[in-house]
Amino acid sequence: MPSNLWTSWNFDPFLLGALAIGLIVWRLGGRNDRMGRTCLVAAYALIFLAFISPLCALSSALFSARVAHHLILIGGIAPLLAIAFPWPKGPTLPLAALVILHAAMVWIWHAPAPYAFALSSHSAYWLMQATLFLSAWLLWREVFAPRAHRGSVVLALLATIMQMGFLGALLVFARQPLFAPHFTTTLAFGLTPLEDQQLSGLLMWVPAFHLMQASRSTSSSRSSRRSNGLMHHDRDGSRARCSTLD
User: For residues 15 and 51, is the Cβ–Cβ distance under 8 A?
Assistant: First the structure.
């Protein structure tokens, strides 16, 4: 109920244990420079917002809150952790396959029957969250990989934006509510099930686009910095060779 929402904090031992293990793994093999630390802290702040704060409880009542929760997971937490846990060398997984895998996870878990299954038990819920996160995390790690081809990265992010936008449009223009777990939970928050579903579509359609655009800009800036670094290195090498010739 809305009156109890602000007291609904989630301190799931499984979640807290996973966060502790994540810190240990990061200390052992993650990116320990300033950028890596900043991204890790930002990712953990978003995890707190999505999984521990009352937003987690609200997502049990509103499908739109669930979609917001998932957007934070795949468009915020996943790319930040992809930077904090980078590939040590060049790309090792096919980017196109990862785009398809991630799109499949997004569409499957936002279809009525799989979504109802995800809310049927604790293990099914975490299966949904884990597969959404892992598919997004693998995609973003490949996007941010040092030797990722910039053109392929742009196409991959464009395809991801387009498929999420299409799913959002389907939710916005659906003529009836589709998600049975929320048929009786939305009215307390001033929304009909159909209005809640339409709001979820708008969230997936519009903010998701800007979120992906921001991540794409980050990827482009990282690529530019790498290119500039290579250019400086080449110029320094050329000067060294000239000095040797002189």
Answer: yes
